[in-house]
Amino acid sequence: MWENNILITEMMKYYTGDPKRIQHFIKVYQFAKMIGELEKLPEEVQYILETAAIVHDIGIKPAEEKYGSCGGKLQEQEGPAAAEEMLQRLGYRPEVIDRVCYLVGHHHTYDHIDGSDYRILVEADFLVNLYEDGVSEEAVKNAYDKIFRTEARRRMCRLMFFV
User: Fold this and answer.
1) Where would I find the HD domain in this sequence (predicted)?
2) What is the distance, to the nearest Å, from the Cα of residue 30 to the centroid of all Cα atoms in its chain?
3) For residue 48, which of 32, 63, 70, 72 has the smallest C-alpha distance?
4) Residue pLDDT, tens place only, 54-102
């Protein structure tokens, strides 16, 4: 999906000079892509998942500018408008933009997850955040028990953290 390479480049421009944010979304994108492919998602759902994974944290920048903070709820609040603007400018279809903006606006909300794209985005973000945030073994086990739903994704978590 060549569009993703263009979107990745746009997100790199968006976060120019912030390699941590760039590295983060690329890692989330790669985990989401891999999990979706392993789960054999329908092509359109995979496309939406990958697009959402690239822009999932786009709300950080406007949240920091407006509030001096970028907590999860602020990212969810500010992200959809920024994602919509970028995706429209790049020519994404309205139905893709709608679902991606929904996912961006909910990716830190872990109850009422509706759809495999949403579930996989949350799990991919968790895999990366658990490592990047250097959380305790207890926090990893808690996420393992409460977040990761399929055996394949639980196995990824075990391989990364429970050596």
Assistant:
1) 21-114
2) 10
3) 32
4) 999 999 999 999 998 888 888 989 999 999 999 999 999 999 999 999 9
In angstroms, the Cα distances linking 76 to 1, 57, 161 are 26, 8, 28
pTM comes to: 0.94
Rounded-to-integer distance, Cα 16 and Cα 31, Å: 23
Per residue in 103-157, pLDDT (tens digit) is: 999 999 998 999 999 999 999 999 999 999 998 999 999 999 999 988 888 889 9
CATH (domain of 21): 1.10.3210.10
Contact of 157 with 139, CB cutoff 8 Å: no
User: Cα torsion at 27, 121, 54, 15 (round to 10°)?
Assistant: -70
Alpha-carbon torsion (107, 117, 149, 137), positive or negative:
negative
Judged by DSSP in three states, 149 sits in coil
Instruction: Tell me the Cα Rg of the chain.
Output: 15
Number of domains in the chain: 1
Backbone dihedral angles phi then psi of residue 99, each to the nearest 5 degrees: -70, -40
